[in-house]
Amino acid sequence: MKIKNSFLLHLGLFTVISLSLFPACKTTQPNRPSEQYEELFEQGISVVNIPLQFSIRELERMLNKQLDTVLYEDNDINDGDDMMVKAEKTEDITLRLDSNRVAYRVPLDIWVRYNAGIGKVEGTGAVAIELETDYEIKPSWELETHTEILSYEWLEKPRLKMGLVSLPVGFVADLLIDNFKATITENIDQQISANLKLDTLVESAWKKMHEPILVSEEYLAWMMLNPEKISMTPINIQKDELEATILIESKPQLSFGNQPKDPAIRPLPTFEYTNMGGEDFFINVGTQISYQEAQRLAQGAVEGERYEYGKRYVVVEGIELYGQGNKLVVNTTISGTYNGTVSMTGRPEYNANRNSIDIKDLNYTVDSRNFLLKSASWLLKSKFKNMIEANMDFLLEENLKDMESQIKEQLSNYELTENFILDGDLKELNIANAYLAPDGMRVDVALRGKLKVGMKKNR
């Protein structure tokens, strides 16, 4: 009996201790769903065609503006040639182009002072010089030119004056051309090198392509181009236009939220020609919206909203978003008749008609449903879940519409340099895929349109 009584005593104590512990261990909230992700996205290469179209007449205007009036000047009569010479451009230079050379005619007024032995004589004349410049693009993108005089025509041979006597001196005129033609060609090559620094322009553009671009200030949408390769088609001449196309291969990414950090700049790829070309560009953008940013947008739509069911009600205090496999978890903190959290999951799905991401089949998790059945079954019968789902559909739709209009605006008549502008048109912006990743919701956005780089028209 003592053993039995002892057993009953211990059993009673165990029961009392167990009952006293149960209230402390009792679940007052549904369990938080676990986070897990599936990496489903493999981004392809995007190609941007940037046609270059230069008017020969506009090139003439730019060259005439940039070349000094005085193309050659020799102020030392004692440097071995017994002459002082000044050559000034009197009319605009005219250009002719083909695929790998530039030909042009340069009219010049000549002033010369010549040491004739018996005294110094002066003269003036006029000459038209035909020049040709061959060019080559080096692997470093440096534009290398070589200019030479093809021929010249004396419009007025210099007449040397000594006192009141003026004599035509043909040999001095020819000596004059031989004396300064190397300097004129070098001057033109130097001017081309100074004003058309292709390597500097491409290097600067390549670095710029690595910087984040703010495409929507309201939604903090950032574009990273992530360029990988750059090439150019051979130059082609069509009537009075010089045409070529620059191709950029990249893996762009779009993100929402804080400005992304500048990535390490890839070395500029060596120059190479390509046979591809056109005006169209097609970009697949790996777009990302962080869960933090998505929560900010969702909370802006539903936080503080009151949902009623008869005499009962709840107010949304906050929302937490993250992924679980291929589903989005929506943890909602509410107060009112029921205080606590409820969890729902839904599938992100691309809606082609609305060009948006909809959260489909949003339902309570098993744990939340079972908990609510015991403590707040009325909430399961209300339209609370439907109202939350309706406010999950806007996450990308408004961002992309805003981004589309801003990209269109930026592509219109964008000034690249003093002489060149970029003009383009975004024809289409669509989402091709949507999935969840550890750092946010990702989608594959397709951008299609046209781009063209040309020279400013002379006004």
Automatic annotation (TrEMBL):
Keywords annotated in UniProt: Signal
Database matches in Pfam families: DUF4403
Keyword Signal among UniProt keywords: yes
InterPro entries assigned to the protein according to its UniProt record, in alphabetical order: DUF4403
Signal sequence segment: 1-23
Keyword Signal: yes
Highest rank taxon of the organism: Bacteria
Protein name: DUF4403 family protein
Origin species: Flavilitoribacter nigricans (strain ATCC 23147 / DSM 23189 / NBRC 102662 / NCIMB 1420 / SS-2)
Lineage: Bacteria, Pseudomonadati, Bacteroidota, Saprospiria, Saprospirales
